[in-house]
Amino acid sequence: MAEQLKDFDDILKPDTRSDLFTVTNLRTGDARKAELEDVFALVSSITLSDSVPEDIISQFNIARNLAIYTWFSYSFHQISELKSFSTLESALRHIYPHKRGLGKLISSAVKDRRINDIGFSHIASDGRDESSINYVNKLKELIPSFRNDLAHGSTTLHDGCFFTLRFCAEFINQLFNDKGSE
After folding, report:
1. Which residues of the chain have pLDDT under 50?
2. How much is the pLDDT for 159?
3. According to the model, what pLDDT value does residue 181 have?
4. What's the confidence (pLDDT) of residue 2?
5. pTM for the whole thing?
6. What is the 3-state secondary structure (H, E, C) of the chain?
């Protein structure tokens, strides 16, 4: 289905694909249709640390706002993801101003132990500690690939911006944590 310009009268109505989402109460197992408030609550729970420079926080908030507006325009998921990745790259360039290329920037952060596996909530701890970098070692290929797919005309359309926002927030927060900025 090709994306269409919404009619003026429909601008503030949810994208029809938003009707496909549900929220499940993990305690009871009850599910209900998701609402805009659920999207806002999810996105507002994804934050950057106060130690992150203000200009990076500002750019990340653009990605967060786009994620909220996916409720009204599903195709904003990929725009939010792209903005999240570009903010991640800006954060890396803030720390490594003379390096170029997202893969090289990520490699530097891994080498300098600014990021590690346990800094990501989607990685099972399995007894890993702060020295574990099995996962983050793979990011120097994966992240540029994902970003480039979005930036170079992909027609990919999925609801991945919420994961990407959280991933990028956790990555950026690790870059600027107190230990990493000593």
Report:
1. 180-182
2. 86
3. 40
4. 84
5. 0.90
6. CCCCCCCHHHCCCCCHHHHHCEEECCCCCCEEECCHHHHHHHHHCCCCCCCCCHHHHHHHHHHHHHHHHCCCCCCHHHHHHHHHHHHHHHHHHHHCCCCCCHHHHHHHHHHCCCCCHHHCCCCCCCCCCCCCCCCHHHHHHHHHHHHHHHHCCCCCCCCCHHHHHHHHHHHHHHHCCCCCCC
